[in-house]
Write a structure and sequence with these properties.
Radius of gyration: 21 Å
Number of strands: 0
Distance between the termini: 22 Å
Order of helices and strands: HHHHHHHHHHHHHH
Strand content: under 5%
Shape: globular
Largest sheet: none
Mean pLDDT: 81
């Protein structure tokens, strides 16, 4: 990290190491269950799952490159790709509302001359698109359950409430990103709430972030080719991750239909996003397995496949991401853009 003071360099390295070690600890907590699941899988049949995991993360990482170029974070493509990869993997392992991955991006990108407002604006937009690609399947899954499975009144109410929450989140997030009026009112509300609870005025910092987000959205609208590219990347990413889950079932000798696959994935992933348990352990697997079992698959098979999906799609990439940190931490620092966030 040439260009950084030795003290700052050590603090950044220490912060990155602590975040990564927490990720390792989270994985270790669930390792006994993971090892038992792996012992029941046919490894050769897992190879396609691992290959499609690579496709999924490649699409996500390159979409991170495209979005950051739109938001004027013009690092080298390789650097942005690797930062996108390690931070996305970290986010999936932690499942903590975007805090770990955004922190990691700030730690790795700000010393390279990217303004904090631009980093956070690009990260928010990236998280929005990534979550949207996942959440958009949720209504499809709910409709599939309604059509194919008779439900008691309590389950109908629960699914209906969940559907209303997810649709409301999609509509609100889309409005907050693309509508200047909704965005402005939302940020005014954040400033007021923050002032009440902390007695601090963050108007300037929020203004910097809002300005960066607005500039990026306007740039994206002027470049329709980027919109097309991002759409294609997220369609391929979504197809790849569904194929990962499919081959997890195949490797256990329990292939399932497309409708059941999409429904179980959509509801399980959504539950993991909405209920921010660190790592999402138990929530994602239980929701995914429960819905798939509701649609006729034995619960034991469903839970094994859900845990196997966690291993292949979250744990394996996390382990593979560890060596990447050494190169990222050695990237030279550049004094360029700064702000007060």
């Amino acid at each position: 990290m040439e260009g950084l003071k030795p003290g700052n360099r050590r603090l950044i390295i220490l912060a990155v190491v602590i975040i990564v070690l927490i990720g390792v600890f989270i994985i270790a907590l669930d390792w006994q269950h993971v090892a038992r699941t792996l012992s029941q899988a046919h490894w050769l049949l897992l190879l396609p799952a691992i290959a499609f995991t690579a496709v999924s993360y490649s699409c996500l990482s390159y979409s991170f490159v495209v979005i950051n170029n739109v938001f004027e974070n013009t690092l080298k493509v390789r650097d942005l790709f690797e930062i996108g990869f390690v931070s996305t993997v970290l986010g999936y392992v932690f499942s903590l509302g975007g805090v770990p991955e955004n922190t990691m991006r700030l730690l790795l990108m700000k010393p390279r001359g990217c303004a904090a407002g631009d980093i956070l604006a690009a990260s928010v937009f990236y998280t929005y698109l990534k979550a949207l690609a996942m959440l958009i399947l949720f209504p499809v899954g709910i409709i599939y359950v309604f059509v194919n499975q008779p439900l008691w009144a309590g389950a109908l109410t629960g699914f209906g409430i969940a559907l209303a929450i997810v649709v409301s989140l999609i509509v609100f997030a889309t409005g907050a990103i693309f509508s200047p009026l909704i965005r402005s009112r939302f940020f005014i509300g954040i400033v007021k709430v923050f002032r009440v609870f902390t007695h601090r005025d963050i108007t300037e910092s929020v203004g910097i972030f809002e300005s960066a987000l607005d500039r990026g959205v306007r740039t994206l609208r002027r470049r329709p080719t980027n919109i097309v590219m991002l759409t294609v990347l997220y369609v391929f990413e979504l197809a790849a991750v569904l194929l990962v889950l499919h081959f997890c079932f195949v490797s256990l000798g329990k292939p399932i239909g497309v409708g059941v696959l999409v429904t179980g994935f959509a509801i399980g992933i959504t539950a993991g996003i909405l209920i921010m348990v660190p790592g999402g352990f138990g929530i994602q697997e239980g929701s995914m397995a429960g819905v798939i079992a509701l649609l006729g698959v034995p619960f034991e098979d469903a839970i094994l496949a859900a845990v196997l999906f966690r291993v292949v799609y979250n744990f394996v990439p996390f382990i593979l991401s560890l060596p990447v940190y050494q190169r990222l931490l050695s990237m030279p620092a550049v004094a360029r853009k700064t702000d007060s966030i």
